[in-house]
Design a protein that fits this description.
Shape: elongated
Bound molecules: adenosine-5'-diphosphate, magnesium ion
Radius of gyration: 32 Å
Number of strands: 20
Helix content: 40-55%
Largest sheet: 5 strands, parallel
Distance between the termini: 69 Å
Strand order of the largest sheet: 7-10-13-4-14
């Protein structure tokens, strides 16, 4: 019973804490609290903004290459609260936070609806859910006890005293008592507002406290009671029609007061239905059911929808009044494949499957997803564009290709609003797993699964052909390159050291060549001429021929010199083109043996031993298991070294 006892003691502590936290008092107690901490009376936008930023704001480090390459010199803010669950959407998150920030300072945004617009599966719902959870984690909110809309206790203060109150506390009071509280004040407390009890309660999505959700509604059953509550028929016999005790204030705007009201797929609703939303923003109040006065509303209205619905809605000119009230933030798909991988890792982490994912599997799926989302350009091929959007250096003919990401971005509008969704990929992953009898997925099986799913589901002929070409050609080639390097690494013992030593040798000899000096042998101290044959053997790996070598050597020497002068550490990966040359050289050095050893039929004993060593390296150092190593080696031997 040890475990149970331990857990029960936690239960007891939890309950104790819960009961202790509940505040009970009157206006005078509340004012004392307010004097110490004016934030207790924050309006909803500020409360939410503080809840999120409270977790930390980080300025993106412009010395980090991802930031420099993708976001320019502008040091974007990132919000720690989103960092561990949302990837590659800093742009959209910044705009959402900018909205909340202005609204929290009572700018015009406080009277606007936030609209997240994006394709399915771009993370809109997940984002709103996460935002709502930020509220759940905040301090409890003070409100008039028994108030169905949990209203601000300061509403008790009569108009005549509000000017003085504002001078004393520096806090402006917005809004008046709701019909229920006004009735109670008069009937139960004889108009003595100092006697009205005040309490606190938490925000809760499930408890519908401070968070109201409006799902898209079938036009036939659409009823504004979802938004503003209704009159309770069972009480109609007891009270007169204009008695607030007949009110059942449980609509989304009632429960969402002081917090958030979310409109899911907002434009699926009939336009009449949305008028309440507009009133809520324009007048900061919503109608009461029956004959009562309007009810003050303070909340953040967040809505989301996809582009088709938005376009249809926008086209109706009768909707202008609403359009005027909307702050739109595009939430496109992630366009950086290294960030997209993180999304799948996150989604897979939540299910408790026990399976093996071979290296590069999610990378390949992510590359595919991003390729489908990018619009073609004449400037570069699709794969190159994908890499540029990922912040990678592009090497061409021994040089770093200068393509400005901004030029590519400016060519197109609304990129990332089409293409395949994260769900499409997740489904392919599930299918690949279901088809596997070894409880694993590999780049090979995910590609097959994606091809199958594209054939089944993408009906637009043009898209379908383009997607299939990515999978069958572009990514097939790309994966073979990745695979060849991987197998080389497993074959070359001490790969890193060998690469490093090629790099150092190359630099020594190239520098000597450029300065017309000699190279000193580190062991014998003998001086010798730069080794032309060696230099060429590296340069030819990336197609540098003839007189181009002089430039290349000069470029490298000055590049490295500049880096060293800045005190930067350099290693063999420091200069893109040289890195590629070194990798190719190492790949070439084991090509023959790779070919022979990976052919299972012709292996002799010695080769078998070499093969086993390679498999062990793949498993130990590179994250494969027995089965996936075998599968990729077989694939390599069938595809990489087929012709010889
Ligand atoms: N950029 C992203 N970062 C993190 N997760 C994402 C991202 N894009 C999509 N997702 C995940 O994909 C899933 C589907 O997203 P969802 O919020 O339902 O999309 P939407 O509401 O836009 O159709 C969610 O689990 C979400 O967490
Ligand atoms: Mg959604």
């Amino acid at each position: 019973m040890k475990k149970t006892n331990k857990f029960l003691s936690s239960v007891a502590k939890h309950q104790q804490r819960q009961s202790k936290e509940k505040f009970e008092g009157f206006l005078k107690d509340y004012l004392e609290i307010l004097e110490l901490n004016p934030d207790v009376s924050s309006l909803a936008h500020k409360r939410l903004y503080d809840a999120i930023t409270h977790q930390g704001i980080t300025r993106m480090d412009t010395s980090v290459s991802r930031c420099r390459k993708l976001f320019g010199a502008e040091a974007l803010r990132t919000y720690d609260y989103f960092q561990s669950s949302f990837f590659g959407m800093e742009g959209a998150l910044n705009k959402v936070m900018r909205f909340l920030h202005s609204a929290s300072m009572k700018g015009e945004e406080a009277r606007q609806v936030l609209l997240l617009l994006g394709p399915v599966g771009a993370g809109k719902s997940a984002l709103v859910e996460h935002i709502k959870r930020a509220l759940e984690a905040t301090e409890d909110v003070y409100h008039i006890a028994g108030c169905p809309v949990r209203e601000e206790p300061l509403h008790l203060i009569p108009r005549a005293l509000r000017g003085e109150f504002e001078n004393v506390y520096g806090v402006k009071i917005e809004g008046d008592l709701c019909p229920v509280c006004r009735y109670n004040l008069l009937e139960e407390y004889g108009g003595d507002y100092t006697q009205v009890p005040i309490t606190t309660s938490s925000f809760s999505i499930r408890g519908r406290r401070g968070i109201g959700v409006v799902p898209p509604m079938d036009p036939n059953t659409q009823d504004t009671s979802i938004l503003i509550g209704s009159e309770d028929i069972s009480k109609m016999d007891l009270y007169s029609e204009d008695d607030p005790r007949v009110l059942s204030l449980n609509g989304a705007f009632n429960v969402g007061n002081r917090g958030i009201v979310e409109f899911v797929e907002v434009f699926k609703n009939e336009i009449e239905f949305l008028h309440t939303m507009i009133t809520a923003t324009q007048e900061k109040s919503v109608p009461s059911p029956g004959k009562q006065a309007m009810i003050y509303f303070d909340g953040v209205i967040i809505s989301h929808c996809n582009e088709a619905e938005w376009n249809k809605f926008k086209a109706e000119h009768t909707n202008e009044a609403i359009l005027d009230r909307i702050v739109r933030v595009n939430v496109p798909y992630c366009l950086e494949h290294s960030q997209e991988i993180k999304i799948y890792n996150k989604l897979l982490g939540t299910s408790d499957f026990n399976y093996h994912i071979a290296p590069h599997t999610l990378e390949l799926a992510s590359m595919f997803a991003v390729l489908t989302r990018l619009k073609p350009t004449n400037k570069v091929d699709a794969l190159t564009k994908m890499k540029i959007y990922n912040g990678e250096e592009i090497i061409e003919k021994g040089q770093m290709k200068k393509v400005d990401i901004n030029d590519l971005r400016e060519e197109v509008r609304d990129e990332g609003m089409t293409g395949i969704s994260t769900r499409f990929v997740m489904k392919s992953i599930d299918n690949a797993l279901a088809d596997s009898d070894k409880d694993m997925i590999t780049p090979i099986s995910i590609r097959d699964s994606l091809i199958k799913q594209v054939k089944e589901q993408i009906t637009n002929e043009e898209d379908r052909n383009r997607y299939l070409a990515y999978l069958q050609n572009t990514l097939h080639e790309e994966y073979l390159k990745i695979l060849e390097k991987e197998i080389t690494k497993a074959f070359v013992s001490a790969y890193e050291e060998q690469a490093e030593s090629l790099f150092n040798n190359y630099l020594d000899h190239a520098e000597a060549y450029v300065n017309a000096t000699k190279v000193k042998d580190t062991i014998t101290n003998e001086e010798m001429e730069p080794d032309e044959k060696f230099l060429i053997s590296i340069e030819e790996q990336i197609g540098i021929k003839g007189s181009a070598k002089d430039n290349f050597r000069a470029d490298i020497s000055s590049y490295m010199f500049a880096k060293l002068r800045r005190g930067e550490v350099i290693d063999w990966r420091a200069y893109g083109p040289l890195k590629e040359a070194i990798e190719n050289k190492l790949v070439g050095s084991v090509k023959d043996i790779s070919r022979i050893v990976t052919k299972s039929k012709s292996r002799d004993n010695k080769q078998q031993k070499k093969y086993n060593e390679m498999v062990q390296t793949l498993i130990k150092n590179y994250g494969y298991n027995e089965d996936s190593a075998e599968e990729i080696i077989k694939f390599a031997s069938n595809n990489l070294w087929r012709d010889s």
